[in-house]
Amino acid sequence: MDYSELEADVLRLIVGATEGSVRAFGEETVTRLVRPELLGAAEDELTEEARAALTTAGANVLTISAAELHDRLATIYDGILVEDGLDPGVLTAISALAHWKSYLEQNRRGELYELAIRSIEDIDHEVSADLDDFLATPEMAAEYERIRRLLDPGAGQERGAQRG
After folding, report:
1. What is the spatial distance between Cα 54 and Cα 59, in angstroms, rounded to a whole number?
2. Closest CA to 62 of 33, 91, 38, 92
3. If exposure means fewest CB atoms within 10 Å of the residue's CB, which of 7, 36, 69, 95 is most exposed?
4. Which pairs from 110-117 meet CB under 8 Å and 24+ separation?
């Protein structure tokens, strides 16, 4: 599967998923993308106040309101110390929080599509997937299966029934 096919399939899954499935997918994905180990470089790139806002937002991402998240993101944006080139982990976490905030505010599935793409990019950053065969690495194949499992829970059961 090439990258554009992967993107199209993820979009199809998000559009076709139940509300419960999309919410579960969003919660699991945003939690994965704001994990503390991604924020190591934040010390050199964000003010102390911005780092604290990022850490707090990440730790409370599933319980924080959209308004609180908006305020934390404003603090983060105001505290960026570098002109460009934020560390990929820090950028991923900030981007994930922004998409999650927009999803909470507007309930738009497009924001969850963006979370899925950030998650795929996060794996790609770790393993450098081949654009022509994006699922060739075990890590990328596992991420794709995670996305499929969360967005289309019945698909895994159908595949399992076909094998048995």
Report:
1. 8
2. 33
3. 36
4. 111/26, 112/14, 112/22, 112/25, 112/26, 112/29, 113/10, 113/11, 113/14, 115/26, 115/29, 115/30, 115/33, 116/10, 116/14, 116/25, 116/29, 116/147, 117/7, 117/10
> For the stretch 63-97, what's the b/e string if a residue is b when 16 or more beta carbons lie within 10 angstroms of its beta carbon?
ebeeeebbebbebbeebbeeeeebbebbbbbbbbb
The model's pLDDT over 33-56, given as tens digits with 9 standing for 90+, comes to 998 887 776 788 899 999 999 999
Beta bridge partners of 46: 80
Cα end-to-end distance, the chain, whole Å: 26
- Distance CA(113)–CA(115), nearest Å, equals 5
Q: Among 117, 107, 106, 110, which residue's Cα sits nearest to residue 33?
A: 117
Predicted model pTM: 0.88
Length of the chain counted residue by residue? 164
